[in-house]
């Protein structure tokens, strides 16, 4: 059986699970993170719950079989079963590493009070933070230890390309590995910034975290 990290590493290379309409169930990579990854016509549920329960709950979900893993009824049952919570179903994007120096001036900082840093440290390990003039870039180890990026741009400097510059810098600071990001599909500004910086969509995910 492939591990969750192996599935993610393959997806970062453009190699996806077979589009066969099935659901793969794998153990959690760590106690913190459980959830669902949805690729084209194939889903991955990562949980330490009984796989038989997962499959029974999916069968009981009254919707198209391909949509069951991200259906609100299944996710609610999943949260009730595990005592976890989730915020939203995110688009999952990935960018390959880049060489060279960032085009934006960055200063690495330790700012535990910044809202983006607080949010990242709840979901990620080994969090590093860089400040730019008008923005913040965060890199940390998220689902299955993959490298994840998050950015924040101050309202007064938006629409000037800073978001794109920050997420491009994330690829240059990645140390030779892919950079992942989770983006709310309704956040069109963020989605455009990541796509303009060369990130590509690979699927959707619902991350379930402990209360």
UniProtKB/TrEMBL annotation:
Entry superkingdom: Bacteria
Protein name, entry field: N-acetyltransferase family protein
Lineage: Bacteria, Bacillati, Actinomycetota, Actinomycetes, Kitasatosporales
Domain N-acetyltransferase stretches: 78-211
Pfam families: Acetyltransf_1 (PF00583)
């Amino acid at each position: 059986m492939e591990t969750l990290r192996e599935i993610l590493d393959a997806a970062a290379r453009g190699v996806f699970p077979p589009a066969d309409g099935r659901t793969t169930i794998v153990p959690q990579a760590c106690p913190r993170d459980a959830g669902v990854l949805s690729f084209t016509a194939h889903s991955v549920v990562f949980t330490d719950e009984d796989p038989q329960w997962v499959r029974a709950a999916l069968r009981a979900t009254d919707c198209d079989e391909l949509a069951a893993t991200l259906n609100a009824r299944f996710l609610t049952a999943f949260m009730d079963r595990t005592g976890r919570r989730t915020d939203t179903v995110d688009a999952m994007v990935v960018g390959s590493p880049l060489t060279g120096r960032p085009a934006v001036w960055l200063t690495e900082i330790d700012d535990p009070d910044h809202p983006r840093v607080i949010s990242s440290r709840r979901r990620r390990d080994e969090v590093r933070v860089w400040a730019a003039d008008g923005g913040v870039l965060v890199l940390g180890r998220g689902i299955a230890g993959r490298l994840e990026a998050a950015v924040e741009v101050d309202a007064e400097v938006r629409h000037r390309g800073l978001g794109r510059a920050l997420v491009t810098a994330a690829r240059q600071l990645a140390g030779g590995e892919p950079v992942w990001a989770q983006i709310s599909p309704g956040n069109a500004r963020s989605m455009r910034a990541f796509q303009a910086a060369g990130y590509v969509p690979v699927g959707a995910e619902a991350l379930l975290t402990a209360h």
